[in-house]
Structures are given as structure tokens and as C-alpha cells.
Amino acid sequence: MREFGKLLGWIGFWAYIILLLNFFVKYVNKRYINKLPKDKKKYADMYRFIMRYIVKYHRIIGIIAPVSIIGHFYFMYSYIGLSVPGLIATIIMFVTVLLGIYGVINKNIRGSWLKVHRFLAFILIFLVIFHVMFKRFLIL
Description:
The protein is mainly α. The protein has one domain (about 1-135). It contains 5 helices and no strands. It has helices at about 1-30, 40-55, 60-80, 85-105, 110-135. The protein is elongated. It starts with a helix and ends in a 6-residue tail after the last helix.
């Protein structure tokens, strides 16, 4: 079961990476792809084809990531103990998820919630790296 817990952690990690792609593909589209000349339309269309799927499945993957992390947390806590950096990363991830749910419910595409949602998502990068690097040292 410990190995299954590790698998769930990796599923949560890769889901989170895919979730981060949502921000980056939109940024690249806005800054560069929209400004391409007409003779590069084929490249812009290919990029937008990929972007469409990343944006479309952001919500679904946003459900997969925390669900897998809950499973990871349960199994690893049961067999190893409580990882303090992992707990902090989990809390930040769930606040980020709750902000995303808030935005979906209110249909408010812009607002301060979005800035906090993005900020916490980027902070989470460092928390996850810290958790992976120091998971054996900070266990209760």
C-alpha cells in the first residue's frame, strides 16, 4: 500500500504540472501567438489546438490532483507518518482548489481571487519541491 501511496503522489504531482500549463499556454498565446503574422497561421492553429485541450480539461484535472493527494496523504500517513512539508503543501493546494471553485461558482473570470489562486499555485511549486527533498527529515 505504501507503493500505491507513492503512485498517488506522483499522479497528483503530474496533474499539478498539467494544471500549471493552463497559465503558461494562455500567457504564450496572448504574448506571442496572437501577434504572429498571417503566414504563420498554421503554427498558431496547431498551438491553439493543444491549448484548447489544456484549458478544457483544467477543471477535471483540478479535481484529479487533490483527490490523488488525499489518497497519497492517507496512505503515507498510515505507513510512514506525517510529513510537515507535505501537510503544508496539501493545505496550500486545497486553498488553491477552493479559490478555483469560488471562481467557477461566481463565474467571475477576473478578480483578486484569480491573482491569489495563481500566486498560491506558483508557491506550491516550491512547497512540493521542498516536500520531495526533505520528506524523510520532517516526519512526525
